[in-house]
Amino acid sequence: MAIRFLTTILLVLADCGADAMARDVWIQNVTIVSAERASLLAGASVKIHDGRISEISRSPFKGHRNDVVIVDGTGLFLTPGLIDGHVHLGEIPGMLPEQEIAHAEIAKSAREQFPKSYLYFGFTTLVDLNSNPQDIADWNSHPLHPDTFFCGAAMIMDGYPMSFVPKPIRYRLARYFLIEPGDESALPPGIDPAEHTPAAVVARMKRDGAICVKTHYERGFGAARDLRVPKVETIQALVREAHAANLPVLLHANSTDAQAFGIAAGVDVMAHGQWNWNTPNSVTELTPEVTTVLQAVLDAKRGYQPTIQVLYGERDLFDDDFLSDPKLALAVPSGLINWYRSPEGQWYHERLAKITGIAPGAKADVDGKAIARVNHVVEFLAKRAVRLSFGSDTPSDETYANPPGLNGWLEMHRLVDAGVSPAQLFTAATLSNAQIFGLSGEIGTVEVGKQANLLLLSADPTLTLHAFDRIQTIILHGNVIASDALAANRSNAPAHP
To answer: What pLDDT is attached to residue 149?
Structure first.
């Protein structure tokens, strides 16, 4: 059923800021779906005041209708906004910095659209796993954007990913890198080793406003398979310092040995599923070694963030129909899509084709074995009620096939296809992520006192993913936004009356 607004005009924030003071909102006769509840709450009335949920009852609205925005929720489901716990907001997917400079207008349009694209697909909160205060401030300068937080990236000196940046600039750009004992002599002048111990790095992150710590265990891929990895004692020390500062630690770990390392180091969340098993590539059925590590994840109650869409972000580069997908046009401005089609915009596809030897249109051959492995991993863990954390890793690399917002929607489908139930997925993207990132006092559930970052859906998301196919309405800090106003390649919605 379509939403019927009983005020003169729906409040839509197309041009005003998300933090602008909203009128009170009263959502009537709606069904509340929230992970902390054992069952749905039907026929509810939800009042929003000053951007927060101030009342949940079964009482109809009483008062003067011109004082509030009234939303008829008959036949609709009210849920918390979704939390994408793994994004990278500093880049335009598929565009190198020099290309962004050369195509400034296309890039500007994209950067203005992308915050809206996340909202369009229901993501009212984002966590950037490798950022800094300035980049987050730039992102939050957009007039309308999801609530955005960041992790500091505590990468090992000269390991992944700073190894891909030329010396000596890598030591300036990697604000929170770690120096292990014995490596001090390799530093260029002006870098103080005392500022790069686990204690110093975590303290700097905390001062900068980070809500989490991201570290890495990556031996490499492609031609580079001998990258430095940290000592377990280093990451154990990092975890101790982070926990003392109330910061969770996520580990980039897509292999069996990396996740075994993460268990030994005591990290809180494995960022990525196991798609590298340290076995011949032909092996796709669970091995005893893989099963042992997965059981250790379960026994230790670690969070698990599969990011299956990472692999499809490479596969879709070889799909001739990807750039014509109507859903892509909801997330990405037409100018950027057209640039992706150009020879210049195909640069990453051409690079990957040379590395893999895969011809255009042969998408089924790309990462097929890795996808099979991670699907088996996710199915194993989902059946045993793993503590699932939702994250899309947008963009995972320099591929244009990880579009903001849409990439999260795609990740949801990958997870359900792999064996995660819609109810497990819903909890992962709301309550569990809020708890993992220390945000559960503010968001993640529909409760009195919480921020009114909410979604109105036409179906129960714990039963079907189709609930997210076309979100009816997004509510951000109490501001009611028609989803059509957020889509790329659509005319702007009317301004706030």
So the answer is: 97
